[in-house]
Amino acid sequence: MLSVCPYFHVHQPYRVKQYRVFDIGNDTEYFNDGSETDLNNRRIIEKVANKSYRPTNKMLKELLDAHPEFRFALSFSGTALDQFEAYAPDVLESFQELVATGRVEILADTYHHSLAFFYSVPEFERQVQKHQKRIEDLFGLTPKVFRNTELSYRNDLAKWCEDNGYLGIMAEGWDKYLGWRSPNYVYSPKDCRSIKVLLKNYKLSDDVAFRFGNQAWESFPLRAETFADWVHAHHGDGQTVNLFMDYETFGEHQWEDTGIFNFLRALPSQILKHPDTSFKTPTETILSYDSTGEYDVPDVLTWADTDRDLTAWTGNDIQRDALAKIYALEADVMEINDPQLTEIWRKLQTSDHFYYMCTKWSNDGDVHAYFSPYQSPYDAYIAFMNALSDLQLRVADRVMKVRLKKQAAQEAKEKRAEARAKAKELAKPTVRPEPPLELVVAKVTIKMRIEAWLRHSHIGRKIWGLFHKNKK
Amino acid sequence: MKVLTFGWDFPPSRNGGLGVACYGLTRELATEGIEVLFVLPKKQETIGTPKFIFAGQEHKTTVIEVNSAIAPYHSGSSQVTSVIGYHSDGTPKYATRTMLDEVHLFAIQAAAIARTHQFDIIHAHDWTSYLAGVAAKKASGKPLILHVHATSFDQAASNNVDPSIFRIEQDAFNTADTIVAVSEFTRRIIIEKHRIAPEKIVVVHNGCDTFIPPVHDPSLKELKAQGKKIVLYHGRITIQKGVDYFVRAARRVVDVDPNIVFVISGWGDMQNQIIRMVGELGLSGNVIFAGALWEEERDRMYQTADLVVMPSVSEPFGLVPLEALQHGTPSLISKQSGVAEVLTHVLKVDFWDTDAMANQILATMRYDVMRTQLASHGRQEINRLSWREAAKKVVSLYKNLVNLIRA
After folding, report:
1. Average pLDDT over residues A186-190
2. Which of A258, B51, B280, B291 has CB 3.0 to 4.6 Å from A213, enough for a Cys bridge?
3. Which among A319, A320, A359, A378 is the top mutation candidate for probing chain B, defined by the most B β-carbons within 10 Å of its own β-carbon?
């Protein structure tokens, strides 16, 4: 018995336009590039929709209809969903149709495809909640399995997932942490009792995601039949083959002319040819198998490049500077509590911005080894920092207003309290001040003497009686 | 292997990047075991053997001076006055000739030198030596390499090239066995404008000195003390170098941040025009003309500057950003330059986009982290661009050509 768990990640960032120093303080739109370049977000969505989302969804729907056994998982960044809604609503509908079959699982994620977990857990939690709400509203289901930005993973993230009621989490099946073990089993994250971790089989996943169209690759051109044979070879040596990749592999990273769509069309039937092979969603996989061991990842693990760490996002000084500055705004943004401003702040947290500033490969002179809409990592940094500078000004301005308002409210409150106290004071019955004690004693003594004389002496009583008789 | 090399300029003659390039390459060729016979036209202002510092390898380089008045960066028709001989009383005889006359004279002398010396290959640097190289080839039958440091299209910064120079270039390119271009940028010009077969042209990027230069006291101390930031232009003030775009960008920068001061170091035919332009744009308070700075003065300025800008309209290579990085200062360079092909840790901009240029200058001044990273990573990057690497490529070209002749 062997199952295959395919999972495709859908993401589009809000790319920052070439925002210049002159624009700081004058332009509050950071993401509205209208040029013919790859900084124009609408243009990118329309392009990728035509090359990838529309044809792939059409094919996935046909495959789901043709093969009742076929299953897979999707994850969406909120920034992708928002842009589909704005620029290509039919794409969003086609995703909803896929999910409506009941055989497509959606994973939990951060809304803004951010690295927030590593910078601010409270902010991370807010983004996960926002994402969950969005998925519930759009697809009517609540994610049960978590995946983090760029498949980033660490023991404490798994622990967080367990504490927050998830069934499992996705991670890279990396040799450094697996040792001699295979990624094709279900494992338990370190220090977790109830949840499980599903590990990406990077060899087979990257055969499709990265190598498929590479003419220099020994297995080029890869046929679905061959690939299915490679999958079937794990019978007897594994429970699940986890094929995790970017959704945009289909038609965007691997263009149509590589034959990627023919491959996808043939894949389910080729996989299912073997009688003991099935498809499972991540939840089904987690519920089907017991854990075979512990997966202990003390340092951040991602699915990126040969280092499998965060250095593509945090490897150089300008990246660390930009990240530190964006998260430094958290307290003020939370204090301002303006949904629009918070949203802009979060859009700037999307990991892609920092990836564009990567200079890791530049040292090898291979500047084209990665995709970026900017002409250089420094152009990316300048655009980002200029936009961030404007946001900083707005935040500082707003926070001052909020604080002044709060201060004014506080002062008004104090004034009111004071006024109330004064009014209360005035309303109290007036009491004549007691005379000094000696004086009272002296007065009383004279009075008492007269009274005593009146009451007790013979003449006095007569006089007293005279008065009182008259009164009666 | 012995190479007969033709050039017109050699340090410490103060003419610009081309002499520096000849020096760097020749020095490393010597360490690669190549014997260089360097032919220079004699120039009145630099009488006396140019000083060579070959770290103990002087014996391998012999300098031959030829009596000619070639000065670089002149158009073909410009008049050159030179000493052509001496009267019996010892006073010099002057003659005024055009640049073209000088180039032809150099070629005649080159043929004579080629007949009287032993060598395996001919290497001619820049258009002023092309005819000399061709003449030497005809006289000796040895293979010829032309080293293109610039073309007539760069100097004109447009398509209005000097037709006589263009003709010399094209004829020489056709005669040469191999053409070395200092960048892909220049190689494309030779393919597209001179219509030379692409396979004949090899790119050998210039290198730079990788030693760490001595640190000097900063210049412009008072300005620095006032918290002013310094942006430096270093180079000839001529149309090819795009100084006018630099000044226009400066106007835009000063509008935003009046604390930035622009230093223009150099000389050239556009100097008066640029000075007028600075006045017209009301920039006199923010632009300093430092004159032509050399050696220690130049190094001091490189070290003082917060950013060096090379706004060239057309730059075959461009040593300025490499020199700046050597002194720990980051650069902003035009995309229309050969050096942009080999540097990642610099800011790049289209020379005509003064708005983008101003934005990048301002951003560099605002974001210290970026400035530091550009300098530190750039410093590492230039270690890959040594003259040694360039010389190795040239040596393999020599060997290929010599083997071809033998075969």
Report:
1. 97
2. A258
3. A378
pLDDT, averaged across chain B: 85
Question: Is residue B158's pLDDT more than 70?
Answer: yes
Indicate left, alpha or beta for A306 from its phi (over 0: left) and psi (-120 to 50: alpha): alpha
Determine the Cα–Cα distance for residues B125 and B7; give it in Å rounded to an integer.
Answer: 5
To the nearest whole Å, the CA of B363 is away from the closest chain A CA by: 6
- How much is the pTM? 0.86
3-state helix, strand, coil in chain A (%, to 5): 55, 10, 35
Domains along chain B? 2-207+386-406 (3.40.50.2000), 221-384 (3.40.50.2000)
Give the best residue of A21, A320, A366, A392 to mutate against chain B (max B CB count within 10 A). Answer: A21
pLDDT category at B85 given cuts 50, 70, 90 is low
Mean pLDDT of chain A: 92
The C-alpha of B57 sits at a distance from chain A's nearest C-alpha, in angstroms, of: 33
**Annotated catalytic residue A256:** no
Question: So what's the pLDDT on residue A191?
Answer: 92
Only one residue has tokens 């007293």, namely A464
The DSSP element (H or E) to which B69 belongs, if any, is: none
Compute the C-alpha angle B385/B389/B392, nearest 5°.
Answer: 165
**What does DSSP say about strands B229-234 and B201-203: parallel, antiparallel, or unpaired?**
unpaired
Say which of B359, B372, B381 has its CB closest to residue A22.
B359
Cα–Cα distance measured from residue B123 to residue A267, given in angstroms and rounded to the nearest whole number: 61
The complex's ipTM? 0.83
Contacts of B206 (CB under 8 A, 6+ apart): B21, B24, B182, B317, B319, B322, B338, B339, B385, B387, B390
B-chain CB neighbours of A363 within 8 Å are: 344, 377, 380-381
A102: phi then psi, degrees, rounded to nearest 5 = 80, 0
**Chain B residues near residue A20 by CB distance under 8 angstroms:** 355-356, 359
Instruction: Name the pairing type of β-strands B61-67 and A240-246.
Output: unpaired
Report how far residue B187's alpha carbon sits from residue A309's, in angstroms, rounded to the nearest whole number: 40
Is the backbone peptide bond immediately before A221 cis, with ω within 30 degrees of 0?
A: yes
Question: What is the band of A229 on the pLDDT scale with cuts at 50, 70, 90?
Answer: very high
From the number of C-beta atoms within 10 Å of its C-beta (0-12, 13-18, 19+), residue A56 rates as buried
**Chain A residues with CB-CB distance to B362 below 8 A:** 21-22
Determine what percent of chain A is predicted with pLDDT higher than 70: 94
Does residue B142 surpass a pLDDT of 90?
yes
Look at B384 and A185; give whichever has higher pLDDT: A185
Instruction: Name the token pair of B340.
Output: 């942009």
Say if CB B269 and CB B238 are below 8 A apart. Answer: yes
* Interface contact flag, A385 B362, Cβ < 8 Å: no
Nearest by CB to residue B256, choosing from A18, A21, A377, is A21
A14-28, B208-222, B232-246, B344-358 — which is least confidently predicted? Answer: B208-222
Q: Which of A105, A123, A150, A284 is catalytic?
A: A150
Coil, strand or helix at B262: strand
pLDDT > 70 in chain B, percent: 85
